Amino acid sequence: MKSVLEIGPVALFFIGYLLLRERTFEIGGTEYTGFILITAGFVPLIAVSTFLLWRLTGHLSKMQIMTLVLVVIFGGLTVWLNDERFFKMKPTLIYLIFGAILGVGLLQGKSYLRMVMSEMIPLDEAGWMKLTQRFCFFFLALAVLNEIVWRTMSTDAWVNFKTFGLTAAIFLFFILQGRLFQEHGTQSKD
């Protein structure tokens, strides 16, 4: 159920976009593209999904809360101003914020990533610092990549990139950390 609540809204956004991307709608004398209408539906959907996730688990991560806030702000601006650029900027801001937070922690000699993920990934102190550095640079690279894609490519290309490209990049990033997990893992080896 948790996975459905986390992945479901993004999957529904993608499906809705595919169904409505070629259409425009007139509402109250203003024309809206399918992208704008799907964004208008996505904002309350992510809010309800996040609320249900909180009810199910009893807590939300800072990342989930920040994502919700940015979706509401940038999704709201997209619909209100009838301008899809705001929603396309959202991933850039999320990645910049996360990269900056991790960078500030690194400058203080701390791994803020460890505070969030220590239960999921057992690493020693050096491993956490290396992983935090890598995540910091990875988030900053994703921010730059999102900017390049949405500013130079079609909305179709951006939606595909956002739905599949970023997901694949995160998956690949974790796979490439296998050696770090082996060298710095603290789990007992049986």
Automatic annotation (TrEMBL):
Keywords: Cell inner membrane, Cell membrane, Membrane, Transmembrane, Transmembrane helix
TM region positions: 5-20, 32-53, 65-81, 93-113, 134-151, 157-176
A Pfam family of this chain: IspA
One cellular component (GO) term of this entry: plasma membrane
Source species, domain of life: Bacteria
Subcellular locations according to the entry: Cell inner membrane
Record's bilayer topology term: Multi-pass membrane protein
UniProt function note: Plays a role in cell envelope biogenesis, maintenance of cell envelope integrity and membrane homeostasis.
Family: Belongs to the YciB family.
Identification of the protein by name: Inner membrane-spanning protein YciB
Organism listed in the record: Palleronia abyssalis
Gene designation: yciB
